[in-house]
Every structure is written in C-alpha cells, then in structure tokens.
Amino acid sequence: MGTHPSWFQCKTTRKFARFLQIAAGSAAELHYHVRLATDAALIPRPVGETLLAEITRVRKMLFLLLRRVREATPNAGHTPTTQDPRPEASRREPRADDN
Fold it and tell me: What are the residue boundaries of the structural domains of the chain, listed by start?
C-alpha cells in the first residue's frame, strides 16, 4: 500500500468507477458537516463558505470524471445481471421425480 492513493490499486475501470462513487459520497457528507458547522457558528462563516466552495468544486470534478469513465467503458459502475456459473450442459429444469 505505502503512499499510493487508494484508487491506484484499482485494477479495473469498474473498480475505479466504484471508488469515484464512494469519493463523491464522502465529499457530499463533508459538505453537510461543514455546512452544519458554519450554521452553528462552530467555524467562522468566511472560512466555512470558502471550504464549501472548494468541496463543491471537488464534487463537480468527481462527477465529471465518473461520467467520463462510465462513457468510456460500457457497464463501468453498473451491476451486471447474475448469470448461472454452471456450464450449459449441467443446467436443466427440475423434474417431478427429483424429490
């Protein structure tokens, strides 16, 4: 692991898209907490507004990057349909005498 950021370990575009989704969610949570702290006067309003502007800028970049990743890779960040892992020959419909 070392000093590499978490996304550096993403081996697939799908994992990278998921990482971006999580990062965007974390940025949204941070935005809420900074807004709450600013409104409760726990941090000075000018500082809070500056932080909120920066967080908003980062969130926009994350969403733009996520959209580009998804456009470049079909099904990136989307859950695939579940398929039966058994070979075709071993699949069969259950019969009445299978009890």
Answer: 10-73
Phi, psi of 41 (to 5 degrees): 60, 30
Q: What token pair was written down for 34?
A: 């900074």
Nearest Cα neighbor of 55 from 43, 44, 67, 47 is: 47
Q: What amino acid is encoded at 89 in this protein?
A: A
Beta carbons of 48 and 35 less than 8 angstroms apart: yes
Q: pTM for the complete prediction?
A: 0.62
Q: What is the pLDDT of residues 69-96, one digit of tens each?
A: 988 876 655 555 445 555 555 555 555 6
Q: For the residues of 36-90, what is the DSSP string, one character each?
A: HHHHTTSS-HHHHHHHHHHHHHHHHHHHHHHHHHHHHSTTTTSPPPP---S-GGG
CA separation for the pair 60, 51 (Å, rounded): 14
Which amino acid, 71? E
